Amino acid sequence: MGFNIFAIEATMPESFDINDYVLTGRGDPEKALAGIYFWTWDTEEVRTMIEWMRSYNADPKHTRKVKFYGFDMQSAPRAAKVTLDYLRKVDPPQAEMAEKALAILADPYTDAEFDKLPQNQKTTATQTIQAVLSGFDRRKRDYIRQSSAEDWAIARQHARVLSQNIELRSPNTLGSQLRDRAMAENILWMMEREGPDAKAVVWAHNGHVATAEGAMGWYLRRNYGPDMV
Predict the structure, then answer these.
(1) Tell me: the pLDDT tens digits for 135-183?
(2) CA–CA separation, 54 and 220 (whole Å)
(3) Are 22 and 57 in contact (CB under 8 A)?
(4) Which candidate among 68, 76, 99, 108 keeps its CA 20 to 30 Å from the CA of 198?
(5) Helix or strand or coil: residue 125?
């Protein structure tokens, strides 16, 4: 039926490892699946599906490859690490500035401590990641020149996921609705990245795919209309 993307309610940064496996065969599919943190997906059946995707892509007759994406944003460490590593490569002064506020989120052993920080430090983290995203856009040409358009796009999306995560963990936010909005934003990014001919199967909890106002499905229906089934 022409679908070429499988997308799942799982952390976007870590899911790139699974996509790398299904496209190239690099890595261990079992470890990559365990690395997206969702016990609900860490099953023999999902692993078998990933291995089927790899087998499909390895067949030279299949010139249009199938891809694997996550679209959730509940985990910060990989998003923060990729963001900071990229900035160290293309903009060391910006990396040094960002590390002061964001390094706590880049380490899985200290990530949980972020929730205990006083509000002024959380506000600083919010302002810092917004400055980072602004820098990605303002210095896009320079960053791409020092890396590549693909590296820029992937790194910027990691920074965006980190921004979503920080917002989710800040006080006075509508956690569930914020997460649904963020997941919809990440799906929109995914679809734009894959081009106008892309067709995706999206797996998520009923409450997220629902089209009630504020749900992920509501945001997607507003954008795609009847093209979202």
Answers:
(1) 999 999 999 999 999 999 999 999 999 999 999 998 766 767 899 999 9
(2) 28
(3) yes
(4) 76
(5) helix
Q: Which whole-number Å values give the CA distances from 160 to 49, 76, 126, 182, 191, in the listed order?
A: 29, 11, 11, 9, 16
Instruction: Provide CB contacts within 8 A for 190, sequence distance 6+.
Output: 5, 7, 69, 71, 200
The secondary element (H helix, E strand) that includes residue 170 is none
Q: Which alpha helices (H) appear in the chain, and where do they start and end?
A: 12-24, 29-34, 44-58, 77-90, 92-106, 119-138, 140-146, 149-168, 175-194, 206-209, 216-224
Q: Which two tokens stand for residue 122?
A: 């959380």
Confidence of residue 37 (pLDDT cuts 50, 70, 90): confident
pLDDT in tens, 193-214: 999 999 999 999 999 999 999 9
Q: Among 226, 222, 220, 176, which Cα is nearest to 202's?
A: 220
**Contact in structure between 190 and 202 (CB atoms under 8 Å):** no
Q: What is the pTM of this model?
A: 0.95
Q: Residue 25, Cβ neighbours under 10 Å: how many?
A: 12
Residue 184 CA to residue 89 CA, distance in Å, equals 30
